[in-house]
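Whiteboard transcription, Tuesday session. T.W. wrote the structure tokens on the left side:
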């Protein structure tokens, strides 16, 4: 059975999307712990900030695969989130290292609410994307 590059890109997207779903769930749990005072803001930001760039790089990488194999509809579905990621990272708080979350402002009610909502929206997007990538993988494997 020969795989096409499209099938390979959808299989890779499924694997990367599973990691992105894990990141979104971890994000939601982390902010729930912060909201219930289970963890302090400094520890929470130290665990969340290192995950920001791997999430963004994984998402951009899988969309680069879609661009190379000519899956433009799938790419267009992901462009709004890529744009949001770029905008969010360019307008992040001034910090010494990479990441989005500043321990001094994360406990503000609006920041905490925004981060929690962002986590839920990303989780929904990644879950819907997972099933779409599964459909794309199956249809590209059937076509070969």
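and on the right, the sequence the group agreed on:
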């Amino acid at each position: 059975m020969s795989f096409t590059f499209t099938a390979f890109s959808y299989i890779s997207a499924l694997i990367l999307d599973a990691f992105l779903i894990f990141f979104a769930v971890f994000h939601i749990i982390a902010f729930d712990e912060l909201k219930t005072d289970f963890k302090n803001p400094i520890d929470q930001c130290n665990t969340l900030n290192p995950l920001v760039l791997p999430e963004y790089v994984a998402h951009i990488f899988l969309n680069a695969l879609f661009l190379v194999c000519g899956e433009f509809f799938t790419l267009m579905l992901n462009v709004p989130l890529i744009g949001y990621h770029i905008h969010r990272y360019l307008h992040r708080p001034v910090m010494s290292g990479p990441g989005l979350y500043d321990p001094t402002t994360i406990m503000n009610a609006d920041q905490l609410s925004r981060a929690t909502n962002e986590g839920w929206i990303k989780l929904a997007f990644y879950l819907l994307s997972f099933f779409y990538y599964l459909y794309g993988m199956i249809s590209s494997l059937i076509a070969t």
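Someone added at the bottom: The longest helix spans residues 109-143.
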